[in-house]
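Predict both folds.
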Amino acid sequence: MEKDCDINLDGEIDRDEFVKFIEQITAETFNVVSQGLIISLIVAPTVAIATKKATEGVLGVGKVVQKLPTSIYASLVTLAVVWVNSDSS
């Protein structure tokens, strides 16, 4: 990527080229972080609520799931997803 920013091809990155390099990295990082946040903070709670309803009838697990308020269950699942995502990064 640094070679893409070396506009004058002198093998060194001057101030303007450095600014372009930082802008590219910032934009790419923002996109990756944004996608991760969308998945973690929107999709995960929705899936958690659906799985809570689906697991309420399962023997053993169902009673525990029923006792947990939906908001707590969704928060726990969301935290687990964020934790897994941060470990894989």
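Second protein follows, with its predicted structure tokens after the sequence.
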Amino acid sequence: MWKQIPGLRQISQRTISTASRRQLGNRVPEKQKLFQEDNGIPVYLKGGVMDSLLYRLTMGLTAFGTAYVVYELLVASMPKKQK
């Protein structure tokens, strides 16, 4: 099969060999220091600005959803006026 498509074997070998050369550094110790640091910040906000935005979005959606459910329950509990 490889003799039919000579360039395919070279491409597959090149992709595999270049992928193994890129070694990512181990950043786990850095993250452990960040999250274990005792600075009064809750662990769910220690990731930075993105964690803060996600937290605020989640809390906003939760508050909106709760208010909407209470509103719908109030509307459902009121009898409709008969004409």
